[in-house]
Amino acid sequence: MPGPDAPLRTALRYGLIGLGVLVVVSVVIATAVAGTPGLWGALLGAAIGGGFILTTLVSVLLGAKLPPSTQGLVLLVSWVGKLLVALIVVGVLNQFDFYSRPALFFTVVGALLIVLGAETYGVVSVKVPYVTTRAGDDETASEQE
Fold first, then answer.
1. pTM of the prediction?
2. What total of structural domains would you count in the chain?
3. Which residues cross the membrane (predicted)?
């Protein structure tokens, strides 16, 4: 029987697979269209977009065993932290021109869509029981009354 965090672990696995496929496809297309700057744009876009989405899932997995208030704090801090890191990275990258901006943009958007879609599929495809019974507990609710 899968554990309560099985959907999250499956979502992480599917998200990483989706990100890996996106990296290969976007690197090939961006390099063919824009050369070496396209390669860098695709790699940076996959790192930014994939890292942004996967960070949330990892923080949920890490905080799953914590009390609800602490888990909420972990999620809030991780969300604000990843937002600040993304803004700083984009601000720093804005000063350089060694990468293709369209390749970066399309790869970030692709990463957001593909990784979120893969994670969603991973969560909904895992069957986890939401009711637990004790061994030998065969009585129904009507028999108990």
1. 0.77
2. 1
3. 12-33, 39-62, 74-96, 102-124
